[in-house]
Amino acid sequence: MTRPDPSRGAGDVAELLAILADPSTSYWLRDAIVTAFERDPFDAERDALALAGLLTRRLDAIVARHFGTRPQA
Question: CA-to-CA distance for 70 and 53, rounded, in angstroms?
């Protein structure tokens, strides 16, 4: 993994390290974080937002199919 950028806020680095150190963090998320930090940050963010949108729409469709509508947060 590339080292966290010290120019980032200390809270951001601490949060990142806490997520990576947490034994409940999935291997999939760990790999995604490590891979994202090795990439251009603009490309990584764009791809992460696209993936988040796809996963949200998938979840919405599954919930709607089973329960009618997705509950609002």
Answer: 15
Write the Ramachandran bin of 2: left for phi over 0, alpha for psi from -120 to 50, otherwise beta: beta
**What is the end-to-end Cα distance of the chain in Å, rounded?**
35
Quickly list H helices, the chain: 10-21, 27-37, 41-67
Residue type, 18: A
Q: What is the percent of the chain with per-residue pLDDT over 70, rounded to a whole number?
A: 79
Closest to 51 in 3D by CA, of 73, 21, 71, 29: 29
Q: How far apart are CA 50 and CA 33, in angstroms?
A: 15
Q: Give the pLDDT mean for 49-70.
A: 91
| Rg, C-alpha atoms of the chain | 16
Residue 50 clears pLDDT 90, i.e. is over it: yes
